Amino acid sequence: MNLERVDLNLLTYLDVLLREKNVTRAAEQLGVTQPAMSNILRRLRTLFNDPLLIRSSEGMTPTERALELQPSIREVLSDLSQILEPRTEFRPLSSNRVFRIMASDYAEATLIPALVKAMRSEAPNVVLDFLTPSDVSYRDMEQGKVDMAINRFNEIPQSFHQVLVWQDSFSCLLHRDSDMIDHFNLKSYLEAQHIWVSKTGMGVGFGVNPEKSGGLGWIDQALARIGKKRKISIFTRHYQMPALLAANADLIATLPTRVARLQAQNLRLVIKEPPFYIPEFELKMAWCPLLHHHPAHRWLRQLILFVARQLIEEERRQEDKAIIHSHMSARYED
């Protein structure tokens, strides 16, 4: 193929067509007429010698060749954007940029407070707009409308960049006066009533079905692996709820450990290790290729990872202090 004869704008058109899977919507996105978009699709089919999009009962379905092309096209367009974009240094102290970040309730409870504190020092005029998973779709991120997502991802578009923020385990939160405090084991755990709290993924969420424990998340999947099932009486999507609900002595909330530690600042609540194995999960930061090379975006990603490392180091210092205090107390009692 003679590259001199290829219109590189066609790659942009193909990117939008594959994202929208609809000629009319793609035309609206690109500001061209529907007949012009249809003509562009014909040119693309000729260029790649493939139908690319085929009409089906669900609209336009990408061919296998189109799905293979999509991540490569996103990468090429990102590289072109980097080449053509003026190289300007990002100055956080003087910037008034708005960063839009999709953050799960877990991330908002554990990471975001420290990020905001660092941001007020590093970039006092920058505006942070935090969105929930229900506010955002992957399409919004692909179009650069949202800078990044910080969440636990079950799946993510292949073209997206992602990096691990940290890993976390699970802990149980109980009322201090609970009958289970002195005999907290698998039997008492299964006999108790539980609070379910979770919201992962993107888009609008719907009610859960208590009978389908396999679809309720990590905790219930871990129980299913040992042939057990817990009794869930409360379903919530907010990590601030368990502290209020666990004030009832007959309830247990099984939460990410970092959230449980925050909630356990309430002196009525006690943390216990789960009486069965629950695998750790990963909190990740993800963003689309279009923003990957942007100086301001790079700065924000680096700041988030720096803040996360500081929080992890502080946790380790606190754990070391607790161990030393425990040893000293034991020696004093001896």
From TrEMBL:
| Residue ranges of domain HTH lysR-type in the record | 6-63
UniProt cross-references to InterPro entries, sorted A to Z: LysR-type_TF, LysR_HTH_N, LysR_subst-bd, WH-like_DNA-bd_sf, WH_DNA-bd_sf, YidZ_PBP2
Coiled coil region boundaries: none
Report the superkingdom from the record: Bacteria
Q: Spell out the PROSITE patterns in the cross-references.
A: HTH_LYSR
Q: What are the entry keywords?
A: DNA-binding, Transcription, Transcription regulation
The question of whether DNA-binding is a record keyword is answered with yes
Can the keyword DNA-binding be found in this entry's annotation? yes
Looking up Pfam families in the UniProt record yields: HTH_1 (PF00126), LysR_substrate (PF03466)
What family is reported? Belongs to the LysR transcriptional regulatory family.
Q: What is this protein called?
A: LysR family transcriptional regulator
The species this protein was found in? Fluviicoccus keumensis
- Organism phylogeny: Bacteria, Pseudomonadati, Pseudomonadota, Gammaproteobacteria, Moraxellales
